[in-house]
Design a protein that fits this description.
Six copies of one chain form a homohexamer. In chain A, the strands form two sheets. A four-stranded parallel beta sheet of chain A has the order 4-3-5-6. Chain A has a two-stranded parallel ribbon with strand order 1-2. Helix content of chain A is 44%, strand content 10%. Chain A folds into two domains: 2-82 and 191-226, Rossmann fold (3-Layer(aba) Sandwich), CATH 3.40.50.12500; 84-187, Rossmann fold (3-Layer(aba) Sandwich), CATH 3.40.50. By secondary structure, chain A is α/β, with parallel strands linked by helices. In chain A, β5 (162-165), α8 and β6 form a beta-alpha-beta unit. The first copy, chain A, has ten helices and six strands; from the N terminus they run ααβαβαβαβααβαβαα. In chain A, α1 (2-12) packs across α9 (188-202), α2 (34-50) crosses α10 (220-226) and α4 packs across α9 (188-202). The interface between E and F is medium-sized, with 32 and 32 residues. Chains A, B, C, D, E, F: InterPro entries: Asp/Glu/hydantoin_racemase (IPR015942), Hydantoin_racemase-like (IPR052186), Iso_Racemase_Enz_sf (IPR053714). Chains A, B, C, D, E, F: Belongs to the HyuE racemase family. Chains A, B, C, D, E, F: Pfam families: Asp_Glu_race. Chains A, B, C, D, E, F: This is Aspartate/glutamate racemase family protein.
């Protein structure tokens, strides 16, 4: 998964940008519930901390953007989430954007994430496939026709001018679908890479002036972010 | 602080309700930033976990309600936050409620917390004192006249029919202020105790049907919540 | 109907709480339109007035909460509506709540009621049965399978973490349905009883300081509320 | 008061429109609280009922629009409230409208009324005078300079393109103020008269198909509206 | 088309009102996209300019209301759009209004237009027919049964108390449909005529005090509006 | 002005990006009113058209973003407005952003622009200077202390985590102010350049499949956009 995300990122990275894909050092293998999202936060911070000072911008490549708000505060470089990036990129490419995914079960999480980022008013609607219980690793290919149909409905009936392909299992599927869809398709990871580059140039390393504080009960990488620069 | 909260809770607890006030076993001594709020989440879960099966309902007695959404999912008893409880109680006692505190610096956090709980439309406005840099332990008494004035403005100009006294340093101040204010004053901890009792009777211990999962990198109490009942 | 409501209330009432179920002394037998809702207001106030000083809290057990805002103003004890209570209880038991009923015709009224109480943002969606023209007294049992299916859709597709069973004919049906539904089901009357108890302890009898005024053209019980304490 | 309203109405009425100003036959002399608003509803319905079939459209000339929603349902001709009319007229005369009144105490009621009519998004802001405890009958003239200043702030700083003069005591003041204000001033009664004429021509007498129902406990005029056409 | 619009307008115009139907002197024959809407703006201004001082109020008879905000600023008489008028009239005739059209493809445009006019909260929902690729000139008659069914759903399931027939091809169809629909049907052009009359009486010719400015690159009629009165 | 904008753009442009600053070929020298905004749209389209196929992305460097929605539709490369870019960049750099400008008179325009882009929920508030009637060319320097104070209030009292410097006269002032402000300052032009680069890499030249249409009454450059690729 980490490799696949790294590869997708490199496709759109600017010349000179080096992509390093990193797995969270601990936590849960899969993020599903609100509680999962919470504990994924410190795990994400640990990954960001252990590589600190080796990157100019960071992307949290997990839908739901765990740890994002904290990371923006604690780090002195821009940090973007892939949901956040998908919403902003879609909004800049078209006035109304749609969200398409392979299963209805993801709609609640995306609705809340969209609301958290404040862009609900720009969303033309969700078009989701039926419940799904197969292998997430192959669902994108298996449901390709379904996805093309949902994208057509999003564009033609909801007026979507750009469409976000939502959910981890759809990562990398955009190039296969784009020829069948009349409006731009957005891949969250790729949007995040481009927007992270943009923000890094706009607002370079920016010391946030935290004073050192002692955090107990967490992995040393997390506590290290509180110990100051 | 923990003792003061316990005492305030006991004032309104029903006969037969036993209040046990517990401090989070790790984390940070003070919760101020978004990152603080994130790391306070697992610390709160640890406290809730280590006493598991010994309570029928729980209150997270920290404005901002850290870990609240996760705790509601992971525990089989009702869990309420004191901000959450204050907003709901105020909304049930009056159609428009005001929020009053001793310093403007708390407004952004309360605005976001109010928005998170979805009750922004019920809020008649914030009335906050000027910036403050003294001792939080005595500010409530020192600014008592200021607070009475802010409450009067909230009721008379904003139309507040109930007023939330917001911020940890105002805990327990309601009885002193109430005689000077024409509308009900809400203390978050006390509201939470009464509402937790109410919910415990409405929805007794309710197994949530989680399957056991392995969480790494966190204190054993937190991981224990994922290990199943 | 009044008996059935009283029985449901007693199931959840705390030890020591005495439930007295009262029918409005005049008005209309059934509340359907906006105009009905208006005239049900003074009828509700009359019932509340004629028993004044004999209760510590009141529940208006009619969906749509007629007279609620006026009663909160005129009485010196907490008053809750069953719609209001259902929305608040659901919001405290789960971050997203669903609303389920046996017929689509009730959706507009509930949407407006939800909006009036300011909790629209917390609602995950409505799942309503098809138009219905049979006997309301038996519809709950007849459509039990339908209701179980709607609850499942609400939980699985809308992400509801608690579900309100809406509409008078569903009063008391929750115990029959709960074993078939994975998330807590909320009965408005029962929620209102528990929340009214909670508020009564938080904010005991609270003189509102009205001056005496003369109201003409209404039943003496209603005018009596204006005549002062 | 009734005479003054009638006179203001006649100033803008079309040729051929006859204005009949009617006082509610019972209720309260002054409408201030939510409870007042509720009981004013049936009183307004009684006035509308006792003249039934003698008018082609009706205006409820009380800020807060008591009984409006019920009257729209029960009568077969258009009924408009003066708050409702002011908001719609202002929205049609300018993209952003302001609300100006002589005292801050009226803001909560107008905010709720604006929200009830759904036009909050069009309001550029409220500009209200300081608390007031004098004679409402002369406040408009006494605070004329204050009102002119508030209107200027509304136009210049809030970007108001039309301004509503809100509150009963400002009825009829618009012609005195308009020469000192650069944007159109709206008088609610006058707006309501013109809009009621417009609606009467658009949607003439329209039987609503109610079946006859028995309403008890109210004045015969109110019950009469339920007895059918 | 222009003739048909003029005829519909005359049906509801008051005695003494003269309707002059005018075609935009340039631009595009059909307005579909956002860009079309933009360029239709100056074209509409040109039509309004070339007849200046010959009318007391103007109606822009194109759904989407091109040029409306600019026209309200530049002209000294009331200007209404037919979408704007339909929304306001529907809101005054019923608390919840529905929007019905023959094809889903029009929903996005109407949603945005509704949002622009700030009345989204009053809309009970859209009921649109399936995609359509036939002759717009005859679709209203061909889909009359479909439209009657959609109106019934809007009233019965969405609770619509008035219904807007949306889209140019439905102009003039209301009289055919009204006998089959239980709630008032709104034709945008007719609503606009009545409301323009209302506003003209409320706010007669009102010099806006523009200073003369030079606009280059546009047709002389458009530049003329900037040259001052 | 055009030169100053070009210089600011070049400061943040990536290596390899060539900035060409272009003035609209016709229209008005200053954009103030809604009507100005409308006519600036075709003028902007003309500038974009006359250089077509010579750029990979475009920025409309005028607050209010005239012609933006149309340009996004008509061109096959990304187009960004500087208001749009400022809002999105600020939202990605901090959860709450403030808007600061030298005069209150700009607030209404920015509020509407913010609402148009759908990011109102992310805005922590406006902090604007008093009315201003001097030379816009020097106001930024003259009011530098005022602006620093407004930025401090935005950060400390409104909780802004990034601040947009709004209004043409503040272009290029960010480097002077940044040392005095604790949170990132956003210059709209610079944000737009970085975001346009990002979008150009994400969604390269993308034929929009328009059919050729005839637009009359506009400058040939504008009509040319309708004539097809």
């Amino acid at each position: 998964m980490t490799d696949r995300i790294g590869a997708a990122a490199r496709v759109v990275a600017s010349t000179g940008t080096v992509i390093e894909a990193v797995t969270a050092p601990f936590g849960l293998p899969l993020i599903v519930t609100r509680a999962d999202w919470l504990v994924a936060g410190p795990a994400t911070l640990a990954a960001l901390s252990s590589h600190r000072n080796r990157y100019d911008a960071a992307v949290i490549a997990c839908f739901g953007d765990p740890g994002l708000d904290a990371a923006k505060e604690l780090l002195d470089v821009p940090v973007l989430g892939i949901s956040e990036a998908a919403f902003h990129a879609a909004a800049m490419l078209g006035r109304r954007f749609g969200v398409v995914s392979f299963t209805a079960a993801l709609r609640p999480m995306f609705e809340e994430c969209l609301d958290h980022h404040g862009l609900t008013a720009r969303c033309a609607g969700f078009r989701m496939g039926p419940p799904f219980s197969g292998d997430p690793g192959t669902v994108a290919e298996e449901r390709l026709d379904l996805l093309a149909g949902l994208c057509a409905e999003s564009a033609e009936q909801d007026g979507a001018e750009a469409i976000i392909l939502a959910g981890g299992p759809l990562a990398g599927i955009a190039p296969l679908l784009q020829p069948r869809v009349a409006v731009p398709l957005i891949d969250g990871t790729q949007a995040a890479v481009r927007l992270a580059e943009a923000m890094a140039g706009l607002m370079p390393r920016h010391p946030r002036g935290h004073r050192s504080r002692t955090l107990t009960g967490f992995a040393p990488e997390v506590a290290g972010l509180y110990a100051g620069p």
